[in-house]
Amino acid sequence: MKHTFRQIDKWLFFTVLALMGFSILVIYSIGAGIALAKNNPQGTTDLLYNQIFRVGIGLLALCGGMFIPYQWYSLFPKNIFKKRSSDDTSRLEIPIAKWLLYGTMMLLLVVLIWGNGANNTNRFLSMGFISFQPSEIARYVLIIYLAWSLSRKNEYSIRNFWWGFVPKILPVALIVGLIILEPHFSVSGIMLIVSCGMLYFARARVTHLLIVFTVLLFFAAVWLLFNPYAKQRIVSKFERKTEHIKNDYQIRQSLIAFGSGGILGVAPGESKQRDLFLPEPMGDFVYAIIGEEYGFVGTTSLAFAFLFVVLSGIKISSKATDDYAKLLALGLTANIGVQTFVNMAVTLDVFFLTGLPLPFISYGGTSMFASSFAVGILLNVSSQSRQRAQELSGAECSDEEL
What we know:
Strand order of the largest sheet: 1-2
Helix content: 55-70%
Oligomer: single chain
Number of helices: 13
Largest sheet: 2 strands, antiparallel
Distance between the termini: 33 Å
Strand content: under 5%
Number of strands: 2
Low-confidence stretches: 84-92
Structural class: mainly alpha
């Protein structure tokens, strides 16, 4: 483990730690304002302890992803603690990546039946004192599975539509379809974007991806016809009329928060919009509160921190020594990057109103756990890539001496 930690991308590691630590400060500030507005001082302490607990879970997930070899997800369970041989590749056996996919599908089916959530949705699954969001876990499980599937040497190339491309896209369609039924369209949209990106880098034909895109446009159009609420959200993005003022309320309050912050912000803990004006100040619109309290300097610094995380992930992917690691790192990085961009774009009224947390910052245990574990996997890939590079360098030096 010590050797693994020495080899990891420490700048990425400490950047994510800083983001998680910053989340405690932000949530404490928001919680204090809400608690005082509701005349419930105890609520501030509860929110603070809850966020510290979630950050602790995130740290455990980060370390878990960092110290579990990424190759394990592509192995059969019985081969985890021994070297894989040609005799252990029976088609009847199921690798861990598939077990994770099947388990996630079961969770998504269960949440449709027994799940709960706001606004007539079934997004959360409660098990005693634990409540979590299976769709957040499904995003990263799908990436792990897809990276394994695309890196396998199959009889049919992915450039063959029926026997190569369709079998790869079917699991994506099943997972995304189950999440749409919750409904959770923002998560399903990001999953489709990331999956298509991975397929493209795995050398799928662009014409095949365009066919998928055309089919999606058709179903999206049909869905909008039978979903007036979603249609109204899209229309209200382009038309600022009186009848859409209810849908625009969050966006308007978010923009007020950014405007109030100015260059340097009104100071930590001095936000006015958090006090019952801006809905979801700890969740989807936490970036707006950061803009009010820390100003343009704070929001820009945070954006650059996330940009650094994304660029680090791209670098890790480019330096990975095998196709599975390359696709895995690329998918995980793209997922975090797209989610961050969409969250920030929504709060700035650049994108349609949708519900996505800001990774490592928003008040949400499942998102914190899943995003942290994803970065842990990135760190494991970087560690092994650097170790192999050093081994190759040492071998070349030995050859030159001989």
